[in-house]
TrEMBL record:
The gene is tdh. This is L-threonine 3-dehydrogenase. The keyword Cytoplasm applies. The active site is at T40 (charge relay system), H43 (charge relay system). The keyword Ribosomal protein does not apply.
Length: 342
């Protein structure tokens, strides 16, 4: 079968022929229909410092996908051939304290699909049935392909109550845009998204934010004044990993404000901890999705009319992966999809 492979310990990706996986006991074999390109995939392509530590070559990339079940291993009873499915990209041990307590998203032995084991940028992928989400109601294939990052957005956006609250989201990348759509759909009063890319801010306007603010031209405090906010934001969602973004967010939160932090900084940086203490700010780190409560929430949100269409801005056949990766790396668009049926 064809697959996108990190063949060598150097920058680049290769479209190669690899053996088709076989489902073992408890596994599901899936014919991949579409995949989404993630920032993690860009890091692996570039073979930066993180990728050099995290990845052992050769490996098939990819963890965002939708596909059709074609076979199941022994012991699989709730999933059948023909089911349309997406996959939870965090494979957990099932034995640690958190796994046994039902907190699988907190497993310390998590292995990432497409990072620690062969992934979904291929014509077929095998996955434990416990990591498979069956789409029981109709769903757009492009949206189903990005259920993994959509889950990051939902986990972040619903970490704190947002009904009637004023929400600040720093970073209008794909997950920030999806989080903005979720917060608005879930009943936030105002949703403000910041970035320095006008193209991405225009996407934020398409998903219905109250204010898309270019922080290269105006401050968050300016945005507050424009919206008539007197005491700051109630809920913050930090999606960029940028030190200045978190500092600006902290400076514009109300006392008792709550921040969900998904953006992953590339290095250590200082913040005003005295202000965090005296303003009684809560900061919660977010990594991945709650299995499978977040997935249930995703499906229900889509059933309720949540529209993620504006967030998906690039569609390519898998043979044009180089153009697709360049698009995803440009920092100006939303999610980029690879079609594996082309």
């Amino acid at each position: 079968m064809k697959a996108l492979v990190k063949e060598r310990a150097e920058p680049g990706l290769w479209l190669a022929d690899v053996p088709e996986p076989a489902p073992g006991p408890g596994d599901v074999l899936i014919k991949v229909l579409r995949t989404g390109i993630c920032g993690t995939d860009l890091h692996i392509r570039d073979y930066d410092g993180w990728a050099q530590q995290a990845v052992r070559t050769p490996i098939v990339l990819g963890h965002e996908f939708v596909g059709e079940v074609v076979d199941t291993g022994a012991g699989v009873t709730e999933i059948t051939a023909g089911d349309l499915v997406s996959g939870e990209g965090h494979l957990v041990c099932g034995k640690c304290r958190n796994c046994l307590a039902g907190r699988r998203h907190l497993c310390r032995a998590t292995v990432g699909l497409g990072v620690g084991r062969d992934g979904s940028f291929a014509e077929y992928v095998a996955l434990p049935a416990s990591n498979v989400w069956v789409h029981r109601v109709p769903v757009d294939l492009d949206v189903a392909a990005v259920f993994d990052p959509f889950g990051n957005a939902v986990h972040t956006a619903l970490s704190f109550p947002v009904v009637g609250e004023d929400v600040l989201i720093t970073g209008a990348g794909p997950i920030g845009l999806m989080a903005a759509a979720v917060a608005r759909h879930a009943g936030a009063r105002n949703v403000v998204v910041t970035d320095v890319s006008e193209q991405r801010l225009e996407l934020a306007r398409e998903v219905g934010v109250s204010l898309a603010l270019n922080v290269g031209e105006a401050t968050i405090a300016d945005g507050q004044r424009q919206l008539g906010l007197r005491e700051g934001f109630d809920v913050g969602m930090e999606m960029s990993g940028r030190p200045e973004a978190l500092r600006d967010m902290l400076a514009n939160m109300t006392h008792g404000g709550r921040i969900a932090m998904l953006g992953l900084p590339s290095e250590d940086f200082a913040v005003d901890w005295a202000s965090i203490v005296t303003s009684m700010i809560t900061i919660k780190g977010i990594y991945g999705r709650e299995m499978f409560e977040t997935w249930y929430a995703m499906s229900v949100l889509l059933e309720g009319g949540l529209d993620l269409g504006p967030v998906i801005t690039g569609r390519y056949p898998y043979t044009d992966f180089e153009a697709a990766f360049a698009d995803a790396a440009s920092g100006t668009g939303g999610k980029v999809i690879l079609d594996w049926t082309a």
